[in-house]
Amino acid sequence: MDLEQLWQAVLGEVELNLSKASFTTWFKSTFIHSYENGRIIICVPNNFTQIYLQKKYYPHILNALRNITKDNIKEITYRIELRHNTTPAPRNTQAHLPASSEAAPAPAMPKLMSTNRFGLNNYYTFNNFIVGKGNELAYAACQAVAANPGKAYNPLFIYGGVGLGKTHLLHAIGNEFSKKSDKILYVTSEKFSNDYINEVRSGRAKQLKEKYRNVDLLLVDDVQFMAGKDGTQEEFFHTFNELHQTNRQIVLTSDRPPKAIPALEKRLLSRFEWGMIADVTQPDLETKLAILVNKCDEKNFPLSNEILMYIANNVQTNIRELEGALTRLITYYEFNNLQPTVDLTKTILADTLTQFRENSVTSKHIIEAVSKFFDIDIKDLIGKSRKKELVVPRQITMFLLREEISASYPAIGQEVGGRDHTTAIHACNKINEDLKNNQKLKQQLLSIRQLLQV
Ligand code: ADP
Ligand code: MG
Fold first, then answer.
1. Which end of the chain is more exposed for a tag (fewer CB within 10 A), N or C?
2. Which protein residues touch ligand 1 with a CB less than 6 Å away?
3. 3-class SS at 80?
4. Taking the complete model, does pTM exceed 0.85, yes or no?
């Protein structure tokens, strides 16, 4: 592993703990200058980045470096230097590079670094998206939209928990569509919001309209971040109308269904529900295995079924973490040149798996949060009693299990006192329905979600 590969492996690990925005902001254009006797020099593009990395991300970087090298890294210093060849090769071309005799194939390049002029990442295609129970409906809808834009479903709204493939699908539609037309735009809702704010500030109202209303396909990622931003919502409402009226395709993603987005204007909410709404939920074991096999192929690093089974069984959260665990494992084996075994895999992944568990909201957290919020004992909350004051909190619990961690209906029933999956479906539908008009319920859900974040 050379310095470049080492740094990419470190970035791969750091990326797991950061938001995409922070990761891109602070780690773009960084690289390792040298690594000798436990001392590492990292090059950064400017002073500001240096201070930020030192202050905020020192432990992240140090831990990742130590994990990967298994060396006792003693010192990290920074140097301000720009790289000459700034654009790293995109990940998908890397997979096809012939592996040189001594160097193992490079670890995964953080994917977000290579986007094209439409804002699309070439790596995310339908081809390398594994279809399984949790995402088959969303996948089919996305394919239909890519094949028949503006006609199949408009808008298409995809929602589900983090790391379950929404962004991947959104880019896949764009990449497919770009074979026919280049009037495409992919943005996050934050980008849209920033464009709007900049425009208001600069007083050039035309630019935004030209940019957003001139496309045949508009892909907006993470629309839940429009919550509470009135100006942005208003502007988006008009953009939406203009595109929709002229049969141009809009695809939106969110971490929750339209109704559950707090402070979303009614008229925008109703439009989000006009077309097709499809969710992505957690992958089952088979899907996880298929994803792992596929990633091993890409990385040209085969692992035994037993090892893959161990990873699939132990990463319960989402596909991003599944990939993260695999990358970490492969990097370790490559770096230390060891023969993969199940036992060794368990040791290598021990920390990573604990970290995933600690980071993630679990069903236990959700049940505790609801119990705390309504001041009800957990055993009553999930118990058999049908007292009125218990029924609604119980339904809210089931609803949140679905929304926050994309639990399957049978799993929800199981968690909440061993109930039938039809009870879970009924509870989720009921809360969804009530959310339409019940402000108090909306507020309660918001507060419980806040409890989950602390
Ligand atoms: P989300 O936007 O829902 O948070 P992403 O689309 O960013 O999730 O997916 C997280 C990671 O998992 C990405 O690297 C993506 O390529 C991968 N991934 C998610 N779902 C699948 C799938 N079904 N097949 C292959 N890779 C997937
Ligand atoms: Mg996403």
1. C
2. 124, 128-130, 135, 162-168, 291, 319-320, 323
3. strand
4. no
